[in-house]
């Protein structure tokens, strides 16, 4: 049995964490470009100014309770790790050659929206930005690597946020569709696999994920509706431009894998509720309508979704071809023990599991459970587009990077994926690790939290040569791909 013969092995990155060149080639600023550096103990923030000229930094990534007249800007005196990232913009040929050496069948990446439409509101695209991705796709195809492109990976032209609050305003749909139509037409003969929104259920983070200032539930759910409509429209337009396109949605599935803390029925019910708040996003994109449980949730919480005539029909007509997921961890939850307590026990480690330095539970069995639940729920092919372990890799005295913990992590998770295929009958299209090369961490802005098979010489202060070096795990993953997942030793 095992994986199908056309299984898509590879790796995944995001432009805002990897590309760099933030103000080159006609690119405009994005929401991620005003996010400062953080750490595992300190959240990132966003910089903004007020009409009186004063400069400020938000507390955390949700960006709530902003004063009137706030405008997000890049300001002197702050560190913005996404500006340079690890400079794929100038190293793409070198990096793609390494991906080819690994044996990649696919490379999942994102197109930076503000590189194509700098403010998001232009009527004509930036040709220099389009040409950059032409070059990247041509380089990938030269090695037989299939591009897999995410259209919206936590990156919105910053001017859309400053003008009207980004996805909180329906006008953003038209801007996004203009972008989608442009890249679909431009790359229709170079890219077959697409995804609309990365981890769409992480819109709860507001600014970091979607450029939406504020995290109140009404604003977030209205913004989510706008993204649902935009996704469905993009699917329909993409299929019209090229019927061979495969267009998927993408879910942060770790947030769906929620265990009750105990067998207390109240805890079990809470686990279902927490998971449903996340599944809802895939329900709409895979099934084409709002599920009844979410409508009741809106009703109980006084949430009113403003729809336009035809929205429901658009959702039905624009369902996706496959579901893509990220999986890093499982979670546990409990019914609130006291008024105001957070039922999602993010700071509590499951006693049956080990955890990383950053408190991420390592749960390969949870990965299998997640795959089974998703396939059983939607009966659509599943594409794993993010799975990996962040660790503080060190260069040893021999000049090498020895990372047996990374090999152990991937071995156990790939075996769990094989079990999901062979034992549970899940249709898995492929698997791209996060990330094949060290990049900036989205959550903390660190370089120290490394994921790659390729080490990049850069530290949290931005120092380093950017030299690429293979870690021990590089050769291991190379063997895994060459054997189509049979050799995990």
From TrEMBL:
Alphabetical keyword list: Glycosidase, Hydrolase
Stored PROSITE patterns: GLYCOSYL_HYDROL_F1_2
GO MF annotation list: beta-glucosidase activity
One Gene Ontology CC term in the entry: cytosol
GO biological process, one term: carbohydrate catabolic process
Region (Disordered) residue spans: 20-44
Keyword Metal-binding (UniProt): no
InterPro entries per record: GH, GH_1_N_CS, Glyco_hydro_1
Protein origin, superkingdom: Bacteria
Family listed: Belongs to the glycosyl hydrolase 1 family.
Record's protein name: 6-phospho-beta-glucosidase
